[in-house]
Amino acid sequence: MAKTGDLAAIIAGCKKGKAECFSALLDSYAGRCYGYFYRLTGNRDLSDELLSELFVKLVEKIGSYKGGSFESWLFKIASNIFNDHLRVKQRRSKALEVRTREAKSESDRVERLGSEKMDRLQVQLGRLDVATRELIMLRFYSQLSLKEIAAIRSEPIGTTLSKLHRGLKKLRAMME
Question: Is the pTM of this model over 0.90?
Answer without folding.
Answer: no
